[in-house]
Amino acid sequence: MQLYKRLKTLTANHVKSDRQADAKVPDDLWQKCPKCGTTILTKQLDEYATCPHCHYGFRISARQRLQWLVDEFQEQDTDLQTRDPLHFPGYPAKIKQAQAKTGLNDSVWTGRARIKDQQLALGIMDPTFIMGSLGTVTGEKITRLFERATKDGLPVVLCTASGGARMQEGISSLMQMAKISNAVAQHAAAGFLYLVVLTDPTTGGVTASFAMQGDITLAEPHALVGFAGRRVIEQTIHQKIPADLQDAENLEKHGFVDRIVQRQDEKELIYQLLQYGGGHHD
Ligand SMILES: [Zn+2]
User: Fold this and answer.
1) Region 95-123: what's the mean pLDDT?
2) Ligand 1 centroid, distance to 84 Cα (angstroms)
3) Separation of 9 CA from ligand 1 center, angstroms?
4) What is the number of other CB atoms lying within 10 angstroms of the CB of residue 39?
5) Domain segments of the chain: what residues?
6) Which terminus of the chain is more solvent-facing, meaning fewer CB atoms within 10 Å of its CB: N or C?
7) Cβ(229)–Cβ(201) under 8 Å?
8) How far away, in angstroms, is 223 Cα from ligand 1 center?
9) Ligand 1 centroid – CA 162 distance (Å)
10) Rounded to the nearest whole angstrom, what is the distance from the C-alpha of residue 34 to the centroid of ligand 1?
């Protein structure tokens, strides 16, 4: 009985100290893979931030992606600033906060880049900048990226990540879809290659325009790619949709994606594809 009592006390203390320890644990010590449920020690995630079990690529900032994607990068159009066309409440503060967090002027990073001896025009959308939403500055930067690439005879590589058009800019945001599509068409008519890398998540107006206009479409494992969200689709068609409907793997199966590529292979594969597709060399 005495022993039992002691054990009970020990157990209770143990639990208590564990709880205290838990309270001090920062939230980001562990990460749960949203695709397969594996719990991963954040420290164990390498620079690619992928799940060791299912190869899903965690959502990363444009800055993190740039570290392993290319050998050299020269940023362009850093001076463009949104004007808050609709005077949307709280929007200027939201932009400022996102700018401070990411170091970008809007949700895409654009510039001229190099992989080995291959020159390219590169755009990386940042899912951490107001959900990678497509605003007027995002649209203008991507349009200029294509226009410059057409003039300089360069292929374009664009890594997409977006929650869709930015509601705070209303119709001006939607118009970017047509504007960018026109620049993509001119780039294609001049005979240059456009390569898209769909990353998690690519949705809404971005999927409905330039994310689906590439000559070659790559996607990262288990990236969510779709137009409307699952709930909206189910409410509209009054049916449950399959769990994997908007998975990159399902899109590949149905011909919307040419190939699924893991992050650690991305740079080499893009380099090889650009070699086949021509364009500038050093
Ligand atoms: Zn996983």
Assistant:
1) 97
2) 39
3) 39
4) 9
5) 60-276
6) N
7) no
8) 11
9) 21
10) 7
Distance 270 CA to ligand 1 centre (A): 24
SS (H, E, C) 56-114: CECCCCHHHHHHHHCCEEEECCCCCCCCCCCCCCCHHHHHHHHHHHHCCCCCEEEEEEE
pTM of the model: 0.88
- For residue 224, the CA-to-ligand 1 centroid distance in Å is 13
Ligand 1 center–CA 102 separation, angstroms: 26
In angstroms, the CA 263 to CA 106 distance is 24
What residue type is 117 in one-letter code? D
Q: Look-up: residue for tokens 């991305």?
A: 266
Give domain 60-276's CATH number out of 3.60.21.10, 3.30.413.10, 3.90.226.10, 3.40.50.720: 3.90.226.10
